[in-house]
Structure formats: C-alpha cells, structure tokens
Design a protein that fits this description.
The chain has about 260 residues and is α/β, with parallel strands linked by helices. It has three domains: about 35 residues; about 110 residues, D-Maltodextrin-Binding Protein, domain 2 (3-Layer(aba) Sandwich); about 100 residues, Periplasmic binding protein-like II (D-Maltodextrin-Binding Protein, domain 2). Helix content is about 45%, strand content about 20%. The chain contains twelve helices and ten strands. The strands form two sheets. It has a five-stranded mixed sheet with strand order 2-1-3-10-4. It is elongated, with a radius of gyration of 23 Å.
Length: about 260
C-alpha cells in the first residue's frame, strides 16, 4: 500500500505546481499515520517496568509508557492511542471494559503480587501494630500511592483498615502518583516507611522489607491486561507473549506470582 500511495502522490503532484503544497500535506499526513501505526504502544502499570521492559526488548516496534493504573485507564478512556493495556487493578480494567475501551474477549489476568512495608536498608523489622509503626515513623510519614486511585495505595488502605490501623495513620500518609514514587521517597530517606509491592522492594538496595501484609488483609493483587479496539495483529502478538510461557517466565524472574485463582 505504501508504494501505491507514493505513486499516487507522484501522479497527483505532476498535475501542476499550484496544487503541489496541498498534495504534499495530504501525503505527509497519510504516511505519518501509517508510520505511527507501525508501532505498538503499551500502557503499563509502573510496578511492571522491569519485566515489561525485558519483554518489549524482544519486539523492536513496541513502545511502553508507564504510570499509575488509574492514570493510564483515564488516559485510554479519553482517547489515548494505546494498543495494549497492562494494569495492576481489576477495577480499573472493568472501568475500561464497561466503557468499551478494550476488547472484552482479550481481558485476562497475567500475574499477582504481595504487599509489603519497607524502610531504609538499615531498618529493623516493624510489627504491624500501632505502637510498632509509630515508633518506626518517628514523626515521619508513610509513603503510599494515592489511596483513591493508585492500586498499591488502594491495597494499602484496605490492609490498614483490616488491621485496625487506618484511623490512626490516615493523616500520616505521603500519597504520591504511583508506587515507584513511594519507593523512591523511602530510598532517598524522605520517608521512614512505605507501602509497596513485594516486587518493588527487590529493585532497590536502599530499602528492605520490614513487614509483609497478610494476603487476607487486602483484595488479591491482580495484574490484568487487554487489547484496545484499535489494536492490530502486532499488538495481539505482544499480548500473547505476555501471557505465554516466555512472558510468564520473565514475570516470575522479576518476583511476580502467577495469576490468582478466582
């Protein structure tokens, strides 16, 4: 099609200098659209960076954009040109599915995770009690994702409520745009504690896990993905890789758990 379009532009251009600028603009726009579609744009939750980067390296045409799941879902719903969406929360995927922003038959879970409390690398273990956390904070704040939008923050709120700690510590949270920002606050010494995914704690030598939240304290952490309505065959191939044996091996190597049974 590209050759035919180019020849068509050349034929039209030969009709006269008067229309050449307009034909040139049309041809550039058409070629630009074709070039843009040659790329597969993947929107992925920030916590997926390491394994998804490794997967994307196998596909030269794949470009990945990372952010909090809520941010990504809202962008897709507003028309952002994503082809594949990989989120850390099933509710945000349901939001996209209800709005017809993803292909329903392609929605699938592909991983799960744990939730942990982290502190600086020199920290001692912290009991998940009011006294234990208060002592560890020393007047500081707990770094978390936005508790009304970022999945890690939503899970953190659920866990604190389950343990009877929310009312005491809700006013001592440092809420940020995504889980990696929460990790960074602790790694830089700007927050004495943070609540992140277990896989996030693995990527920084500046932090350590000081407590693990019981699985029953929060909704299962489900990573779920799908193709958008405009996704092409290349996008479908990448999504198939994520859910296939090779992609799942990369997820496991990064510390992610298999999808939870429902």
């Amino acid at each position: 099609m590209g050759l035919g379009l180019a020849n068509g532009c050349e034929r039209l251009d030969s009709r006269g200098m008067l229309i050449r600028p307009f034909i040139t603009m049309i041809c550039l726009a058409l070629f630009g659209a074709q070039t843009a579609r040659a790329e597969v744009l993947v929107f992925a939750a920030a916590s997926l960076k390491e394994p998804v980067d490794a997967m994307a390296a196998q596909f030269p045409d794949v470009v990945v954009s990372y952010a909090g799941s809520g941010t990504l879902a809202r962008q897709v719903s507003q028309g952002a040109p994503a082809d594949v969406v990989l989120l850390a929360n099933a509710d945000w995927m349901n939001y996209l599915r209800d709005g017809d922003h993803v292909q329903p038959h392609t929605v699938s879970d592909f991983a799960s995770n744990g939730l942990v409390l982290i502190g600086p690398a020199t920290s001692n273990d912290v009991p998940l009690t009011a006294d234990g956390i208060t002592t560890a904070l020393g007047g500081g704040r707990i770094a978390v994702g936005l508790t009304n939008a970022v999945p890690a923050g939503i899970y953190a709120k659920e866990a604190l409520i389950h343990l009877g700690l929310w009312d005491q510590f809700a006013g001592q949270l440092a809420e940020v745009d995504n889980v990696r920002a929460a990790l960074a606050l602790v790694a830089r010494g700007q927050a004495p504690l943070g609540i992140v995914y277990a896989t996030d704690a693995r990527i920084s030598d500046a932090v350590r896990v000081v407590a693990s939240f019981p699985q029953e304290s929060h909704t299962p952490i489900r990573y779920t993905g799908a193709l958008t309505p405009d996704a092409d065959e290349n996008a479908a191939t990448f999504w198939g890789f994520v859910t296939g044996s090779a992609g799942q091996a990369m997820m496991a190597e990064a510390g992610f758990l298999p999808p939870v049974s429902r």
